[in-house]
Amino acid sequence: MDTTRQDFIVGLFIVGAIAVVIGALLATSGWGERRYDLYLRAANADGLTTDSKVLLQGLEVGRVSSVSPRVDSTTRTISFVARLSLIGRFRGGATLQLPTGTRGQLEPASQISPTILIRLVLPDSTHRSGGLLAVGDTIDSERKASVLDQVAEVAQHLSKEVEDVMHQTNVTLQHVDGILANANGLLADVRPSIDSTLASVSATMNRVTKLVQRLDPGLADSVSTALALSNRVLLRVDSLAARASEMTAENRSDVRTAVANLTQLTRQLNHLAEEISRRPYRALTGVKPLPPASDTTRTGTADSTRP
User: Fold this and answer.
1) pLDDT > 50? residue 305
2) What is the mean pLDDT of the chain?
3) DSSP string computed for 180-237
4) What is the Cα–Cα distance from 239 to 245, expressed in whole angstroms?
5) pTM (two decimals)
6) 215 Cβ contact partners less than 8 Å away, ≥ 6 residues apart
7) Which one, of 254, 247, 263, lies nearest residue 185 by Cα?
8) Digit-coded pLDDT (tens) for 216-250
9) Nearest alpha carbon to residue 86 among 132, 45, 129, 46
10) How many CB atoms lie within 10 A of CB 186?
11) 104 near 118, Cβ under 8 Å?
12) Rounded (5°) CA angle 288-292-297
């Protein structure tokens, strides 16, 4: 009698355990739930499977039950239609009703998995027409790029920008090379005139210095003032020569003018030194300056023969 009761209790326990397991399976599998179908149009079915999840604001509300291709009879393009099996009622009793304009967003389920999940995106309140989707309606979808695709797009964009910068740098370097070549040509053209002018000025200054040493102090002060002015001119010429490497073609006329002025100054100083050396009393009576360079040949002989 005790054995029979013990076997009965064990059997009852086993039956109860099986019932609990079956009930849990039924509760988790969604069997008996009220469901309805919607269709989603997709450009391609990459990563879309018959068990892909359908989410609404982070909550799973359905699964994909099938995916089938469609061929457009006019354009002969291929698209895909996924059949969505959605729950009709939440556990609290509220019904799932989607407004017109709802669209699906296909995005990766994880960063390392090719599986796609479908996220239902509701329209803005300002764009809602007030209608609801009916059973069997079709909604559009868009695919969200993965993080790897976004990184690849950013890298491609940066590569394009770097290429543009390198091209602009190359153009700038070519322009700088042209400027340097032009400056080198200008220096090569002007340097002989500058060298000869500086040599002539140096020789003239030596002659004037020797002449000043032979004059009285009062006249020496005037000549010293002229020499100081000449020294400032020489310093200006040295500065001009130091910066000549930075000149461009538009500075050519200024350099030629400076060289012409220095040449004229040298001629005047040479003339002053020569007249005072030959006729010291000219330091008191004055020396007539030379005419411009264009009249040098005509007036030079008359000055040299003047008593």
Assistant:
1) no
2) 77
3) HHHHHHHHHHHHHHHHHHHHHHHHHHHHHHHHHHTS-HHHHHHHHHHHHHHHHHHHHH
4) 11
5) 0.42
6) 223, 276, 283
7) 247
8) 555 556 666 766 777 777 777 777 766 665 655 56
9) 132
10) 19
11) yes
12) 90
Q: Which two tokens stand for residue 98?
A: 């989607």
Would the CA dihedral through 26, 28, 34, 40 be positive or negative?
negative
Tokens describing residue 138: 């079709």
How far is it, in rounded angstroms, from Cα 108 to Cα 114? 6
* Start-end of H helices in the chain: 2-29, 147-213, 217-242, 252-278, 282-285, 296-304
- Is the separation of the CB atoms in 80 and 70 below 8 Å? yes
Q: What integer pLDDT is reported at residue 301 of this predicted model? A: 40
Task: Report d(CA 5, CA 16) in Å as an integer.
Answer: 16
Distances (CA, A) of 65 to 54, 58, 87: 11, 20, 13
Q: Band of the pLDDT at 119, cuts 50, 70, 90?
A: very high
